[in-house]
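Here's what a typical entry looks like (SLC13 family permease):
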Amino acid sequence: MGTLIAISVAQQLRASPEPFVLALLFGANLSYATPVAYKTNLLVMNAGRYSFSDFVRVGVPLIILMWVVVSLALSWVCLMVIRYLNTAIIFNEMRLHV
């Protein structure tokens, strides 16, 4: 469901859908801040006798770090794709004129 929305937004913005889908996938996996975010978090909470605040204390900085890293990585990937496409277009134009 979320992937279809990301692709639809990309199409409306006339942008490549890959960065939108990747951002959605990475964002959906950032479930560190609460024990109820994923099943294994609940298992670890019970076994390790962690409290809710332990997850928030460690999870929020980790989410912020991952947010920055993923944002920079996606920007870099988009730049590389744009450069590759521009190079391919220029190469094809040169080949046509020969």
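The longest helix spans residues 52-97.

More examples are in the samples folder.
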